[in-house]
Amino acid sequence: MSSSSSPKRIRLGILTPSSNTALEPLTYELITVLNAHLPSTQITAHFSRFSVTKISLTPDGLAQFDLGPILAAAQLLADAQVDIIGWSGTSAGWLDFSQDLTLCAEIEKATGIKATTSILALNKALELWDVKKLGLVTPYLDDVQAKIVENYKGIGVEIGEKMERHLRVVKNTDIADIGEKTLDGMVGDVVGSGVDAVTTFCTNLIAAQRVRFWEEKYKVPVFDTVTTVVWDMLRECGVDAKGTKGWGMIFDKN
């Protein structure tokens, strides 16, 4: 009598902005699909919050991303013995990519657990797909958007005037109310400028579930920042999720 081996369990620890209502449901939906695609692996997601209520370049807006509260939230995830910690947020887009590199190093130092982020993962995907012209769709203010464009220019990724659209929303809870019709229009606008890929760049946008529709319509990869962090967490855990269907071309490569 033979017994089947138990699936390999992977616990993903995910850092979440306190006011975010989109990323957890979307992450669960994605993980349900991943578990169906990977029957020998059982993936679970576990969340820890720290205070973020608005997106702006004001001193109090920037202070929300100080290391102390984030590391405290990461330590709570470490209590659950997660396999990896991911920051499902886009703050390094306007702060500087080095901010996330520092954060990951400090998380590993404090917890002994490897870490990644939505933006570090996005940048890995852009490199894998050799993206030189990027369509940027966000809900952010003009000055936040300008910082993101500037930071991508610094790593050789062009986001021209016609390659970006943003909605000037400050309050984070309002971002999750942005509907698919609005996002459809924004993605269509930036694709028309001849980009190599598009990113829906905010983990409180309810956008990841729409990526397949946009990719089939426009024939370019769309990288959503809720999905990018999960994709990279699995890669760092040695899980090959290549071939996962319904959540974008990002799963065409590993």
UniProtKB/TrEMBL annotation:
InterPro entries to which the protein is assigned, alphabetical: Iso_Racemase_Enz_sf, MaiA/AMDase
Top-level taxon in the UniProt lineage: Eukaryota
A matching Pfam family: Amdase
Transmembrane feature ranges: none
Cross-referenced PANTHER family: BLR3294 PROTEIN
Entry protein name: Putative Asp/Glu racemase
Taxonomic source organism: Mollisia scopiformis (Conifer needle endophyte fungus)
Lineage summary: Eukaryota, Fungi, Dikarya, Ascomycota, Pezizomycotina
